[in-house]
Design goal:
Helix content: 25-40%
Number of strands: 5
Distance between the termini: 36 Å
Shape: globular
Strand content: 15-25%
Radius of gyration: 16 Å
Order of helices and strands: EHEEHEHEH
Length: 164
């Protein structure tokens, strides 16, 4: 198929910053590199804390101002941010989706607290959105204390709000 246009894929990773030394980031980068052999891939992290070691795809930031201060412990993009900052980040995601979605053929969304949020927005914009879910709901885990109960309620509420 000479002259055929390559598939344009956005892999949106709203729950993580690019920190190449962290496991979740490495998983994303490895999948993007594999996809990059067959498609034009752009990976969108909340922010870039370290440069990507891969050249097979483009990396962009959803919210460049979302970089944590100090030395990052891991690549979790929402760790330690309050409700107002999280709401502000959701607005940044909304702006990114409105601005960028139309330039892709399909948008992949890595699972996070609000899994389905980005996919729902891209589908509404007319671009297929696919959730890459690797954190199945913890419906059968025992509740051992108040923190387990709070986490379960938070996850169920987030999933109900973001969409399935």
């Amino acid at each position: 198929m000479s002259g055929a246009r390559r598939l344009r894929i956005a892999y949106v990773v709203p729950g993580h910053n690019l920190l190449a030394s962290a496991g979740p980031t490495r998983n994303v980068l490895n999948l993007a590199a594999a996809l990059g052999q067959h498609a034009d891939v752009t990976v969108a992290f909340r922010s870039i804390l370290e440069p990507s070691p891969h050249q097979a795809f483009r990396v962009v930031e959803i919210e460049p101002s979302g970089r944590p201060s100090g030395i990052p412990v891991d690549d979790a993009a929402a760790r330690g941010i309050g409700p107002l900052a999280f709401y502000s980040y959701l607005r940044s995601i909304d702006r990114w989706v409105r601005k960028e979605t139309a330039s892709f053929d399909v948008v992949l969304e890595k699972s996070w607290l609000l899994s389905g949020y980005v996919s729902r927005k891209t589908v509404r914009a007319g671009v297929p959105g696919v959730l890459v879910e690797n954190i199945p709901p913890m419906l059968d885990e025992p509740i051992r204390g108040l923190s387990d109960l709070v986490r379960r309620v938070r996850h169920r509420t987030a999933r109900a709000w973001a969409g399935r």
